[in-house]
Design brief:
single chain; CNF1/YfiH-like putative cysteine hydrolases; 7-stranded mixed sheet; 6-stranded mixed sheet
């Protein structure tokens, strides 16, 4: 990934998506911002214990740094589902300045609207951005272990194929910073859920040193979902940045053993 810094706000950008000059995309770091304590830095998440005024000011900082009006942002109200929302004019701007107005109970958003920045919030879960270069359609999704097991990445591409008449070969994907296979240890419950969902590949979930514990590779799991539905491997970019290992740059729930802030990932279509 590439990095930029504007007015003290550091953001990351996928090289494959950066090759398209008719979109804007980003993954924020925690650098800069007004939040303090366990939320220190550029916390983008409302209603998680931080001062909401500071969160609003953080979002305004991000808006100014990216050159995107705050009212152009649309945030989903995530619930670890595989639910997908199509963002049209009525939902444009939802969740930009408060949590209550966000697009509730959806973890994936698709839009063909210009100048509408669909954005998700994460702190260890996987942010994924998709772009169909032919149909000029974008998607942003949040994939924790539940969303990954319920195949949110695959289902989002399916929606693009069925609802938007996309072709999988035209889709480019960026799988952003999240907790890595080096650190994401899960228990028997998650292991059983993975097996029950039809997961069989040994490189996705493997035994940890402690009995009854497993390492879950969310990066590879989501990448393989995209490949299986037809996205070209060479169109998929992995950030390969573990948020727990890099807690100084990204918010991580596992690194803090408790409540923490949220960083954001978003994508916006510009004129073709």
């Amino acid at each position: 990934m590439q990095t930029t810094e504007v007015s003290g706000i550091k953001s990351y950008h996928f090289e494959n998506l950066s090759s398209f000059d008719n979109i804007v995309h980003f993954v924020t770091s925690r650098k800069g911002g007004y939040s303090k304590g366990q939320f220190e830095g550029l916390n983008i998440g409302f209603n998680i214990g931080d001062n909401n005024w500071n969160v609003f000011r953080n979002r305004k900082l991000l808006s100014d740094a990216l050159g995107i009006p705050l009212e152009s942002f649309t945030f989903s109200g995530q619930c670890h589902s595989s639910n997908i929302a199509i963002i049209g004019n009525k939902l444009r701007g939802c969740g930009a300045t408060d949590e209550k107005s966000s697009v509730q109970n959806f973890d994936s958003m698709i839009t063909s609207l210009l100048n509408t920045c669909i954005s998700i919030k994460v702190a260890d879960c996987v942010p994924i951005l998709l772009y169909d270069k032919e149909k000029h359609i974008a998607a942003a999704l949040h994939a924790g272990w539940k969303g990954t097991i319920n195949k949110i990445a695959e289902k989002t591409v399916e929606k693009l194929l069925d609802f938007c008449s996309s072709q999988a070969r035209d889709i480019f994907a960026g799988i952003g910073p999240s907790i890595g296979p080096c650190c994401y240890e899960v228990g028997e419950d998650v292991y059983r859920e993975y097996k029950f969902s039809g997961g069989t590949k040994k490189n996705i979930i493997s035994p940890a040193k402690q009995q009854g514990k497993y390492y879950f590779d969310l990066w590879q799991a989501n990448k393989e979902q995209l490949i299986e539905i037809g996205v070209k491997p060479e169109h998929i970019e992995l950030a390969s940045i573990c948020t727990k290992c890099n807690n100084e740059d990204f918010f991580s729930s596992r690194a803090t053993d408790g409540n923490t802030g949220r960083f954001a990932a978003g994508i916006m279509l510009k004129k073709q």
